[in-house]
Amino acid sequence: MPRISRRTLLAGLGGAALTAATGCTDRRPAPAAADGPATGASPSPAPLPPVTVNAATGPVVVPGAPMRVIVLDTDVLDSALTLGITPVGAALPARDTRYPEYWPASRTTGIRLVGPAGAPDLPTVRALRPDLILSNQARDGDRYEQLREIAPTVLTQTTGAPWKADFQLHAQALNREAAGAAFAGAYQKHAGQVAQALAAARLSGRRVSLVRFVEGGGIRVFGRQSFPGTVLADAQVGRPDAQNVDQSDVEVPPDQLARADGDLLLYATYGDPERSGANAVLASPGWQALAAVKGHRAFPVDDQLWFQGIGYTGANYVLDELQRFLGA
Fold first, then answer.
1. CA 117, chain centre distance (Å)
2. pLDDT-derived band of residue 75, with 50, 70 and 90 as boundaries?
């Protein structure tokens, strides 16, 4: 399978969405028949009726065509941009100072930063006059009542591993269900193609390790119940025994770095490389002794993509990079 550039992938995904959107059932009521002669002016389309979605907090009535959307975590940022909606405001993880670079600047320019994820600045959120707010209970469950006073607020239970089901809810809230289904289908096809390419190259048995250095959170290895873990599973890629578990992630002490080893080791840093411990670990004898490191099969990856790009656009890029790292 030829490697896919980010520009080509975005164009392909956009085409899938456009195709799906043109096939959407129009929820607008049919215009009433005119009683008089035609005036030549096109009637304004009737507004779409409100929609009720079943969020983690219960049923929420949202606008039929939300235009001013605020997203308070990285998964809903990916969902909105994937579905062709540029939010008016967004929250980013506290240690991030920029929007994810797997999105071109043209898609994120103009999005107002409303504070850190998990602690958004509510006056800033209110000043943007949103008609819909998207987040999850893990981040914003404790301020749900305050958010819903500003605008209808749709929360999923959490983020990460259930990203596909969460995306469906986001698509429903954004009135982009047909486009959402098209993206889901395109991703499944892409994952199948990558799996076939790896199998043809006899690389399916390679065990891929996922390691993240987290400022304030230590060294973490990621299991199957995480966003990148699910993407690797979709590509039918093996995992090291220590990570082949039904958990999101586990903190590893520096003296147990062997649990981070694999046939391929991919690592990222959230926060400052010094304060996260990344610099010290990468220079340590324990890290240098790992088979993947000695074999030159350990590579840094973009944290905002691999661990925060929780959605179909992020997942497609992860698949493409995975294929490239494995050499298929």
1. 14
2. very high
Query: For residue 96, is pLDDT > 80?
Result: yes
Q: What is the largest CA-CA distance in the chain?
A: 86
CB-based contacts of 186, cutoff 8 Å, min separation 6: 12, 13, 16, 312, 316
C-beta of residue 137 within 8 angstroms of C-beta of residue 156: yes
Q: What is the pLDDT of residue 204?
A: 81
Minimum mean pLDDT range among 77-91, 168-182, 195-209: 195-209
Helices (H), 258-302: 278-282, 285-288, 291-294
Range of weakest confidence among 3-12, 67-76, 133-142: 3-12
12-16, 92-96, 195-199: lowest mean pLDDT where? 12-16
Contacts of 183 (CB under 8 A, 6+ apart): 13, 16, 17, 20, 82, 83, 167, 312
Tokens describing residue 143: 């301020």
Closest CA to 153 of 166, 170, 165: 170
252, amino acid identity? V
End-to-end Cα distance, the chain: 8
What is d(CA 156, CA 113) in angstroms, rounded to the nearest whole number?
21
> 248 near 225, Cβ under 8 Å?
yes
pLDDT for the residue 4: 47
Structure tokens at 224: 């199957």
SS3 assignment, position 240? coil
Nearest Cα to 78, choosing from 320, 317, 309? Answer: 309
Which tokens hold the place of 307?
Answer: 């661990």
